[in-house]
Fold these 2 entries.
Entry 1:
Amino acid sequence: MYRPLIPMLLISGMAASGACAQETISLEKIQIEEKGIALEERRDTSIAKRIINGEELTQYGDLNALEILKRTPGVTIPEGKTKKGAPGKGYTVILIDGEEVATGSKRRAGPLELISPDRIERIEVMTNGSAEYTAESMGGIVNIILKKPKSQGATTAKMMVGAYGNDPMESLFAQQEGKSGKVSYLININGSENRKSDRSTTTRQNGSSTSEESRDDSVHDRFVNLTGKLIFTPSSKDKYTYDGSVAMNETNENTDAHTVTSPPGSVSRILANNDHSKGVMLWSKITGEHHLSGKELLEWKLKFHQSTSSGESASVLNFPTSSTKTQNDESLFRIIGAEGGYSIAAGDHFIKTGAELKGMRQHNQAWRSVDGADTTTPSDDVSMRENKGSLYLQDEISVGDKVVVTPGIRYENLSRDYGNTSHIDYVAPSLHLLTKVTPNDTIRASVAKTLKLPRLNELSMSIDSSLERNDVHHPDRSGNANLREERALSYELRYEHFYEDKGIISAGGFYRTISNKIERLTALEGTRYVERPYNAGEGSLWGIELEMKKSLNAYVEGLGVFANATFQNSSLTNTLTGLKRPIKQTGNTLGNLGFDHTLKGYRFTYGAAYRYVGGYDDPLDENSIAQTQKRYGFLDVYASKRLNETFKVLLNLKNITRTTIETASNLTAINETQIDREYSKPQILLTLEGKW
């Protein structure tokens, strides 16, 4: 009789011998790397998910978790300070080992850029909300599961050298794992130093006047991370784990810009901009697992996470006049919390319930000056305290041999103090259905209520100044103290066919209705462009997703192909004006296409992957600004050779298409068109990996 995979693992957990008790599999995670087993788990799990593991995480030379997620289908990653984001189905919550990531300030890099792919065991992508996780799961959930020590022990070392264009890049990674008595341990350290130099241009047309700005952008980034993990297993029924890591980064960015205006056709503006930032991320938690019986499991967790960052920005206008604008900033994000969970397998039911208490503090402060005169305002020093309590109940119900129904409900109670005080409580129900039509064919359906709460950066009226670079594509950024939470109801339907050779083909559709849709709109306020978030209206988003992974071994030995595509559309209606338009910056097409070929006799593998982003064409918004972005793509290739049982060498060529991202805005209020082009260079990486 068919049973969901996770309850079966729980029931069989008590049969594990004491010698391997440290590898007892928890309810939520299975730490394995074989692609075939990962696909089997994907087929059997009651809630739809994609699983990325093993060499898929490292074979394309991605430098951090952010780069991996950008090439992952169905995932949306915030743009940050440039347009090189990954538009998708809306918001996507990012978890690390089931924990919400402590986001940095709007001015600085996020913590995903501080996680090396070598630390990641696998990534799970769940496309719809689940009661077990946060209710803030609009657009799905990405759970980054970090590596755990293996009982046999191993030492791993990697050295990478390369270049971005002519700029050098290098990184080191070392890891030791093993077991001593009842304690398993893992410790790793990695560091990198990367440089990048790019060019970008801006064309402005206003009547008969045309100006062309050329910018030389350079980035120098240093990073180091130390991670430790201890697992103590006093018996086959109990396990205690400590996770701790500290990551530090330092980044220096320089921009030199020259503007030529015609007529008269001479240099009209010379600008230099510098931004220097530092960041520290602390991550620690203690967890316990207790098998009360062969069918019951009790779990608990204590956690402390903190991110701090600081930066100094300066913009110097040298011509036609001389002026200097500066901005210094500091930010703190801290989470302290506790969780508890209880699970039981009873007949055809697998019931999970739990509770969480979490306190969060965020503090942002900025200081600004113009030609030495202080222009800081009281709104530039802002703090927010947030306390959240959560309860959830979820049941996996086996109906006969082929159907699993997973209803769940989550209740969250939230209080905030950020100058204003607010109190919100909400109920987030979800329902997932898995039907095994045949042993290799499944149909999945789900519906879930989710929401997105405004963050302090979105509520704070503090100005993140773009200094002298201010224009429609580089506006000042600020918040909106009246912003309300965004709520959504999401529906998904998917068909999956699993091949005997561990391949898969799937097709699915999604539809989401959205209330109080949050969008960031840019407007000319006085003499400066300012971007703020607003509750733009009532919206909807719908589309289809296609996916394929298939071995072509019957035709060419060792050859495999993969492809995925998302086709989507959207609509948003302003409840005040009745204006109807698409959701801003939502591309209609996203896709990935690639192949891998292994020559077993030579212990050699090579492959290529192309990532396509279809761009967007936004009509006039409420501020009379229309924006378009041309489609673009990145082509990456790789080759790896196992030298012997210990060493392997990997060669990556990234962005060999030298991709340019072009964004154009039409400002009807002042009859101006602005076109930005961000150029990029190819990147080469050579990695030597040893494991013994």
Entry 2:
Amino acid sequence: MVEDIPLPLLRQELALFPAPPAEDGTPGWTLHDPPANKFYLLGWPAFEILSRWDRGSVQSVVAAVNQETTLTITEQDVCGMIAFLTQNFLLQTSSTSENKRIVSAHTASRPGWFLWLLHNYLFIRIPVVQPEQFLNKTAPYVRFLYSRSFLVAVAAVALVALYLVSHRWDVFLHSFSAYRSLEGILIVGCAIPIAKIIHELGHAFTAHRYGCRIPSMGFALVVLTPMLYTDTNEAWKLTSRSQRLAIGIAGIAAELLLALVALWAWLLMPEGPLRGAAFILATTTWIMTIALNASPFMRFDGYFILSDFLRLPNLHQRSFAFGRWWMREWLFGLGTPPPEPASVRLKLFLILFAFFVWVYRLVVFFGIAVMVYHYFFKALGIFLFAVEIGWFIVHPMYKEIATWWQLRSTLRFNLSAFRSVLVVAALILFFAVPRKGTLSAPAALSAAREQQVSAPFAAMVIGESVGDMKKVQAGELLLQMSSPDMDQQSRQVKASTEISRWQAAQQTFDEKLLSQGNVLNRRLEAGTTELSGLQDVMGRLALRAPFDGVIVARNDELAAGAWLARKEPLYVIADTSRNRVDAYVSERELERIKVGAAARFIPDALEFGVFACQVTEVDRINIPLIDEPFLASTYGGSIASRTDAQGVTVPDAPIFRVRMDGCSPAQVPLLKLKGVAHIEADKSATVVELIRHAYAVVIREIGF
């Protein structure tokens, strides 16, 4: 006969509470550890074992459960319960060795200050108040908020408010732009704490209403940004799923109620700071709250609401277990059973949910890493960025890969493994094997030569000898202008010069003129030079074609007697016998393009066809501004750009011009063509490009 094993003693302060039934309908219970304020969800067999723990031995418990219930358990089930209780320190200690084990576990769970700060600097919870006494006193005054009649009244008041706002919709929308000043920032800074306090009180009053103790309320530092919190862990005591859902939704509902009150305040109050605060409370705060708290991918309100709604406690941990199990099965075909029994639909949901959470957290953690990098000074920012990426992204991946390595002895070559090998090989081919590719770049096709003719200075139009689309030859007269000011100045200089010439000729016959010596000759030379310069400048009043071409644009204001301002555009002349294409590439792509490479230009207007070109010039200096505005993102183009203080369109990142001349066919449209240039490039591996780009980023960012 197998020796009966005595049962260890349970801690006296442990408590059992009914829990919602499991998905299969079997009853459930919650085991509460008050000192640690932890809750453990127990299934039916675990409860039946614990409820007969006083039988004193393993075999006695097994016999009692099998005789008194419809369950059939074994000694292994009871031993498993002992292991669970031991692992979570739920048993009484009766020896020095057990006490040392508890102390060692407690010490191991409390890392040094450096590791604690390293792991928790992004989220530090600081309790501020113990609200039980306050909730006991004030709960009667808010009881009416939970009545059905109040909810009906709120719905009616909300409909009336929305109706009134719809009649003042233009004023309401204008308010969004009216609070972007410093005053608006101060209003937002005052309104948001009010909304968050109401949010947390909604959780606290609702949990208190259903008998839950609220041990603390305070604030948490999330990336050193304060956020309020309410400890509602005792909600796990509740057996009603609707009550737990109510606690989870209460914060959002409280903010929506505050938003309704603020909306009525905005409708009734005169313009001023208080009305601005009411507007912020009625719009921005609750929208931000829903956007943040409704996400089930982080442990905020949305997660607990979804978990209770689906009756899936520990949703994240369970889904992660299924996600890892599916990934290992897909990669290696291990044939291991799933982490827990589940229907096909539940398995699919948990697997997809796990991957959604992983992708979401990857984006969030990377965003937080970038934020902390810019949040602190350079040296600390680099360190915290590395910690964030290493601990929250690289470390979980390393742990999973380490698990794969530990499973290597169980791996067998099967269909799943063969498929994984093919996928890895395909990835290696894609990223590591150099390929002679084609680069695509935004580009514009225009005439090979194009020049704008402008008025050299303020003048009046006398006559014009050309018009739109007229072919002109180099030196042909385009426009004759006149400048009365320069005519007057020319007459004055000419008269002064004639006087100086007469005086120089008569100097030998006049003692007074003779006494001036060489002054008269120098004055004559200066006047002659000035007159010659004026004549040259006045010669520019006759505008002539700089080269053979076609007038593709003309100032519509040109007419006899019209006055022109200095540098006013008059004509655009283009040499339509040849064309050119200017493409714009990034620094990473520049090294792969060589002079002589073949290229094709495909315009957005497909009716012009495809142009075959050849690279003739590759700039090695980035362009400071974008010459073709229609290629800039600010005007709907594909080059990321911005407009500076002077109104000039500048690229956000360095770009370089690649010129292609003599494209075939040689036709030149009247207007520049926007399109895409496909340029043959040298062989390059994707992984090399990624490493080169990452290296460039690192070199750029580590500069102090």
